[in-house]
Each structure stands twice: as C-alpha cells, then as structure tokens.
Amino acid sequence: MNRRVTRRSLLARGLAATATAALPWPVSAQPPSPAKLVIARRMIEVNREPASVFGITRDGGKPGLVLEPGERFHVTLENRAGLPSLIHWHGQTPPPAQDGVPGLSQPPLPPDQRYDYDFAPRPGTHWMHSHEGLQEQMLMAAPLIVREDRRDDAQEAVVLLHDFSFADAAELFAKLGAGQGAHAGHMAMAGQDQPDPHAAHRPAPVAKAPTAPSSPPHLHDIEYDAYLANDRTLNDPEVVRVERGGRVRLRLINAATATSFIVDTGAITARAVAVDGDAVEPVEGTQFPLAMGQRIDLLLALPRGEGAYPVLMRREGEAQRTGIILATQKAQVVKLAPMSQRKAAAAGLDLEMKLRARDPLPRRAADRRLTVMLGEQPPYIWTINGQTHGAHRPMTVRQGERVQMTFVNPTGMMHPMHLHGHHFQVTALNGRAIDGAMRDTVIVPAQGGRVTVAFDADNPGEWALHCHNLYHMAAGMMTTVKYEA
Ligand SMILES: [Cu+2]
Fold first, then answer.
1. Ligand 1 centre and the CA of 443: distance in Å?
2. What is the per-residue pLDDT across 370-417, written as a single tens digit (0 to 9) for each?
3. What is the mean pLDDT of the chain?
C-alpha cells in the first residue's frame, strides 16, 4: 500500500508540473475520480471448451474503456492477474512514462499494485494491450474508444479480433524456434535485389548488412484453434440488434497477435471513414484488409426491411473466418460456418493506396530521413537494421524535426510496423508517392515492400518501434526512436 501511495503522489507531482494548463475541469472543482481498469484472469468458452485467458475490464466488467469527447484519460490500472504486467495504450500519444512499455516507460506493474495514468487522449478507435512477454496472446487486450467530437447518429459496434490457441503462448513461441525446417532449409533468395541500407541518411550506422537469407513468401507461422470476434467464434457469434434502415459505425480492432484479416461486409457496401483512429476521406468497399494492431471504422447503411447482415473477418489467405451478425429485431439469424468455401486474399496495400488523410500533416520537407531495414535469420530471428531488440542502437531524431522513415522488407513475411508516441502519414508505397492516411501501424509487404511514412517529432522521449506480429517482436523485431537531448 505504501508503494501505491508513493507512486501515485510521485505521478501526481509530475503531472502537476506539466498539465496544469490543460486541466479539463474548473480549478475550484474537485477533479473527477479516475476510471478503474482491472487486469485479471477470466474464463471464456471457445468452441464449447473452457479456456483460461486474461481480460482488461472497467467498472461493471465491460472490456476496455470508452471516453466521451473532452474527457481525459484518467485511469487507475489495477493488477489482479497474479503476475507482473504492463498495459500499452495503443494509438494514444501520452508522455513516454505513461506509454506502458516495460524497460522504456515503467517497470512492469507487480500483482496487487496500481498505476495511475492521466493525459489528454487522442480521439478515435484505439485499444490497449499488455506489452509484457507474450500476454497479448492470452487476450490481455481490450478496446480503448475515444469518441470523436462530432454528431454521428450511427449506432456503434466495437469488435475486437483475436487469434486463439488452447496451447500456451510460450509453447507456440518455442515451436517456432524448434521448427527450424521451415526456415533453415530454404535457399537464399538468389539474385534478389537487396535495397541499399545506406541509401538514405541515418545517424546510427548499420551494424550488419541484411545479407541473411529470407524465407520463401508465406503468410502464417502458427495454426490457431479459433479466431475470435469479441471473444466468440461463428459457432456462437455476437448478434448486434440494429434498426431497420439504420446506420452502424463499426469500430474494428485487430488485436490478434499473428493474424491479419480481410474484413468482409458482404452485401452491404461500407464506407471506411477512419484508420487507426484517424479520419480519412471515405472509401467505399466490401473488403478491407486489417493487419495486427490496426483499426478501421466502417459506416454501414442498412436496407429498410428486416434482415441479418454478417460482418466477417476472414483470415488472410485462408478459409477460416470469424465475425459478428448485425440483425434487425425480427430477423432470422442463420448460422455461418467458421470455414468459408473460398480463401481470402492476402492483406496488402490495395486499400492503403486509396486512403487519403482528412487531416494530413502540413506540407513540409523532411529534416531527417531514416531507413528501417527489416530482416530475418534462421531459425527464427527477426531483426531491424540487422539487430535484435536489446542489441539495437536507437535511431535518433531531434524535437521539431519532420522525420521521414522508410521501411524496407526483403523478408518472406509481411510486417505491420508500429511506432509508439506518434501518428505518421503514409507518404509512399513501393516508391509511389501518395498523400496517404495518418496511422500508427502500417503494412510493409514481404519480398521487397517499401513503405515511407512521415511524422513530426513532437513528443520527446525514447519510443518503441516494432513489428506488431507478437512473435516477430519477441524474436527481436523491435528497436527505439530516441530524441537527442
Ligand atoms: Cu513482423
């Protein structure tokens, strides 16, 4: 208890110095008490079998947090999970000490202890997840919705996606390393052009050129037991009751650790209006790729009559799927198989190419250009600029700079790359310049994919930059971006 008081008072003092001017409540009034989030074990049922997983719930037991426009992210996080943990507020851009990355932000939160957080949140569809070990695989993830400051008569439905295994995450990870045949036996990609890592200015020299062989192109390393939408499979899906002719805003969050999905709205044409919480010029379609860590907001206008409208999330390149059913009050809900007749497409850059930020970065030349070379080595080592996390040298930026960052991926797998503490604008895809979406996580395709983003260095600290495939990250694919003093 003493420890808790100490932490709280320390945090309160630190905040008082920085945040007084931005307090959202009148000075004379008491500040509103913090929302409470609890991380704990819980039981769910997956295909009629019990499974012990984690959860992050607010008062009343609902997963995650929903904030109204103007509300601060003022949260007490309580650890009842029985093991140390730390929660990252994915999509938020808090001061670095509140970012929830062990080793960078704070020590892991011990069992039965609390941390307090208080910052002005970024609007949009975001999420929260453990950044400690492999806990994310055990569903230690939840939505973090900050409602946008504008009128929208659409009914809201939040859907958190996951890939689920009855096996322990450590076991899944060990298998990847032990299953060396998948990676060790294949040949080097002879004759493949390796992009020059020195092509762009970079302050930290590359320790090792990416000469290691890359695996043949493949989409998956892990076969899961189920794919979940709000903890449920298509054998027992969530049915969201909707109005006839109503409008629905779907807030879709890919919290899976190693699975990209293709969102499929079927007969209903949807309008993508935001990605990673950032508004985009609307793009119409029925298929939308969603990589690990990414979010997409879809607006659906439903037909006037009674009806049931499945929204399916199909595992990329495969037949497995999960989903929810939008259904009017009297509609018959027909059961859908968790396997479809045909395989989904791979998650690529086709949507990204069409996306345009509604609020792009102001036009400005880059002050600094960084290359982020993704790499792999057998048996299961994933690198950034030739190094694994821990052996990495931080990439440096200076406050006030416009930073251009180019991800280059000669490996055999796609990597959804996530920068903490900032949102960036996508400015080029495979060499083609675009005035693309603002985001925090972007797909970098396998086998030569090049994606360039730009961001303003406006949040001093040292920030994680990593692949959002949990196993790639655990196998080394993480570095940091550090502000020079
Ligand atoms: Cu990766």
1. 9
2. 999 999 999 999 999 999 999 999 999 999 999 999 999 999 999 999
3. 89
**379 HSE (CA, 13 A, CB side):** 10
**Domain ranges within the chain, ordered by starting residue:** 2-151, 186-211+357-483, 226-345
So what's the pLDDT on residue 467?
A: 98
The upper half-sphere exposure of residue 380, i.e. CA atoms within 13 Å in the direction of its Cβ, equals: 20
Q: Is the pLDDT of residue 345 over 50?
A: yes
Task: Say how many Å lie between the CA of residue 391 and the centre of ligand 1.
Answer: 18
∠ at Cα 380 (374, 383), nearest 5°? 25
- How far lies 477's CA from each of 326, 374, 407, in Å? 38, 8, 13
Distance from the alpha carbon of residue 373 to the mean position of ligand 1, in angstroms: 12
Q: Distance from the CA of 87 to the center of ligand 1, in angstroms? A: 21
226-345 carries CATH number 2.60.40.420: yes
Which ranges in 234-377 belong to alpha helices (H)?
350-354
Task: For 426-437, write each residue's pLDDT tens digit.
Answer: 999 999 999 999
Ligand 1 centre and the CA of 464: distance in Å?
14
pLDDT category at 206 given cuts 50, 70, 90 is: very low
**Distance between Cα 361 and ligand 1 center (Å):** 27
Write the DSSP assignment of 89-154 as a string of letters: EET----GGGS--BTTTBPPBPTT-EEEEEEPPPPEEEEEEE-STTGGGGT-EEEEEE--SS---P
Determine how many CB atoms are found less than 10 A away from the CB of residue 339: 11
* pLDDT > 90 in the chain, percent: 83
Query: What SS3 state is found at 22?
Result: helix
Mean pLDDT, range 456-464, rounded to an integer: 98
CA distance linking residue 143 with residue 90, whole number of Å: 10
Between 182 and 422, whose confidence is greater?
A: 422
Query: What's the CA gap between 31 and 260, in Å, rounded?
Result: 41
Check residue 144 and give its pLDDT: 98
Give 186-211+357-483's CATH code, choosing from 3.40.50.300, 3.10.28.10, 2.60.40.420, 3.40.1190.10. Answer: 2.60.40.420
Ligand 1 centroid – CA 80 distance (Å)? 31
